[in-house]
Input
Amino acid sequence: MFGYYLDLALHSLGRNKILTALMVLAIAVGIGASMTTLTVVHLLSGDPLPGRSQAIFYPQVDADPKNKDSSEPLDMLDYRSALDLWSAKRADRQVMLVQSTVRLNTDDAGKPAVMMPMLSATADFFSMFNVPFRYGGPWSEQDDAARARVVVITDDLNQKLFAGENSVGRVLRLRSSDVRIVGVLKPWRPSPQFYAIRGGRFAAGDTSDFYAKPEDVITPFFTGLDVNDGNFQQFTCWQMPAHPGHLQDSPCVWVALWVQINDATHVAAYRRFVADYAAQQQAIGRFTHSGNTRMRSLMGWLDFNGVLPSNVRLQAWLAVAFLAICLVNMVGLLLAKFLRRSGEIGLRRALGASRAAVFAQYMVESGLIGLIGGVCGWLLTMAGLWFIRQQPVAYADLARLDVPMFLLTFVAAIGASLLAGALPAVRACRVVPAWQLKSL
Amino acid sequence: MQIKPILSALRRHKAGTFLIAAQIALTLAIVCNALFIIQQRVAHLSEPTGIDEPNIFVIKSEWVGAPAPDQADAQMRADLQALRQLPGVQDATPSNSYPLRGDGWDDAVRLKPDQAQDSSGSTIYFADEHFIDTLGLKLIAGRNFRAEEVGHMDMRYKLAPPLVMITKALAERLFPGDTAVGKTIYLIGGPATVVGVVEMLQAQSVEHWASDFAYRAVIIPERLNVSLGTFYIVRARPGQLDAAMQAAAKALFAQNPRRVINDDDGVLSFSEVRSRAYERDRGMAILMGVICVVLLAITAAGIVGLTSFWVGQRRKQIGVRRALGATQLDVLRYFMTENLLISCGGVLMGAVLAIAINLWMVTRFEMHRLSLMYLIVGVVLLLLLGQGAVLAPALRASRVPPVEATRSV
Output
């Protein structure tokens, strides 16, 4: 029966090509717009560390004397607090990290020096965040302590400098220090760049920079402080730092601390440890208050920072409204199309077709329109994502259709057209045969 | 024109009527809000900087090997001299930043040294005595810096210049209804006397967070010596921008090759600076524009489709009307009026929906309230669209011959 209905549907679609084209266009444009924006939302709001994120936490204490117990603590840590919490090694893994801009000089006399972002982190960074290596591997904890002049570079930089060869053992010149490459990463593109997120509450929704690529140059934490001394940026300070750019003893927050706690039962203990640390710092007079320590989980921290840019959310809402209009449009057109064939319906009913059969026939026709619309909508989605990749936003390179969203395109297109077809099909199967036959 | 028969006909086509009205309502609601967003972005795009944009370009010169402050200052003075000697260059000035750059030094301004609440936020521009001539600023009160008043400082020192110039917007904020020249303001490092007021100079950031002090700036008579590098703002002679841009980078390398001037953003004309600063706003405005056009097209197509169906369905009735003496114009007018009635219902619903959506966006996306003008423009636009869309099917209806009435009765 399905085959027969399909045949009828094809016939009917061919009969009024303009009306068919209009409906296909409506579905395609609605699906194209909403799938483009929903794909972006889907890519930007995923879990950057699936399977691991629930064990990752972001402890915060508040050294700012201008704050009170009732205020949110500052988004980053001062050097002393970060170092104390990190050195206690109370979590399964812990990472201190800081970002800066460094000048990279190449051996090539012909190539000019370039400024590039650098990440300086302690050794656990790679194992804690599942960072994949192509060549070599991470440095050791001893390298951290010894301030070893070593570096890990990304696949991108390796392609650029060494044409993708195994560059382990080669030397880069960062500012005026030589550092030896110990590892080269595989392509690694977390979305968002979760370990560097902070200050989202001050961004007024303009958070697209949270989706930047990881830094191309990654050095051990203390090595970075040495190599790029004088070039570190504070998140904020409560007094002018004595030596801007060198922030180790400054009244500034500028270091991020991440910890991994595998056993959920130990989370409360670590929370208590952070609170006790703050209380102890208050007791020795370094903090003015200690009641506002925090320890959000990774996803909680992303939420708190409102990582999804408000432009993206706005576009998604618009696109869904757009789809709704396209659907209303399609309901109208289908109604017109189906009821125009009232005579035919009357004939079929008179010859013994049940209402269910008529309903099924028209739903098959709607579904077919949805399928064609889905194919066109998929093409439009690809075009839309291409357009987004041309935009000057940090997440541009992420905008690609993955398999679930590809399937969703067709499910949504067919689902939407069946929904749109339901009312006209119900009206069609209510056609009274006798009236129609009389007027034939 | 009789409205009653149209209404009674519509009552027999409830579903179709409702669908057209609903589509018009939704389209109105979305288009109004989209137009409003476009307008806000475009207004943002066209905010003036207050400087002579067509002739200005900016050079970012990075030092090699972190020179000491005195060394950097000597280099800056030599560079400026080299730049000012170029034939295509009218004037040049060093600065830490410039309007639309995005980030730089923003700081608090106070009126008393021990004031708890800041009087205003402000952009801090470091400058020399050539600053206002280079940027083409208009001095509206007081005087410019004198050459001997311009010093230099590095990041180790607190910001405490003896005298400053400020913008009119900042002067009005600090000393409403009073002259600012001769008054004292407190920067983070100490007091400074205002010697001059310039008409207009935009802050370095046009982002949302800086909108509180968009045109408030303090101009400091110091060359800021930073170990990383500096900006030079250069004003070319009219019509010689391109030549001056090329000559300037060459002249700097000739002066001292130990520096980095990036290929892609080392030398930027101000029109490039502007387009970089507003890239995202422009993208959003274009997207909204495309959405509006496509929506209107889809709505129009829907109206054409449904009305055509109605015309087809009613051929016989139309034939009867024609046979009973109705003119072609009467039939045309019938369908036009019918559409107008449906559209009016639609825009009424749509207006309510548009306001509701706007109120929701105000709470979620930091939008402003929708101005009534947009609603009126949207309503007129959709009524015209409806009339335009219905014209073709209505004309076809009016051409139905009276003889249709006699067929297959």
About this structure: Residues 65-257 of chain B form one domain. The longest helix of chain B spans residues 328-365. DSSP finds eleven helices and 14 strands in chain B. The longest strand of chain B covers residues 190-198.
